[in-house]
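Q: How would the structure tokens look for this protein?
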Amino acid sequence: MTETSAISDEIRQLIGKEFGPQVYEVDKSMIRKFAEAIGDPNPLYNDEAYARKSGHGALLAPPTFVTALRLEEVSQKAMEAKCPLPRVLNGGNDIEYFQPIKAGDTITVTGKLANARETAGGKMLLLFLEFTFKNQRDELAAKCVLTLIRR
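A: Here is the predicted structure in token form.
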């Protein structure tokens, strides 16, 4: 009996396709709310005077802040794509930083399904979504690879 691949034609067609852009205006309240939600009291994230004196000039976003700047279209398509493995789990984020994100920045997010890999026996499928975050000066601020697990 031949096993069918968990990588459906729909998933194959998504690999490499660019999605976005989604643009976010990062403001002080977004940064403060995110820092509060993750329980990080660092004054760089919630005390404007402190952040200015530190040389950054504005409140800094916590490092994991990019995970809140979602590009739903690519994530939804990867999660809803036809596949014999119906359950979807978050396998984690791998984030690489290049420029700090600060209050007042405009962040543009693009993304794609970069790769799909089956485990031996086809019991699990790993989907690797790559996101790029650029600031208003077109500088690369961060890259993130989100791993989705289909089982």
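Residues 9-25+69-150 form a domain with the Thiol Ester Dehydrase; Chain A fold (CATH 3.10.129.10).

The mean pLDDT is 94.

Upvote if useful.
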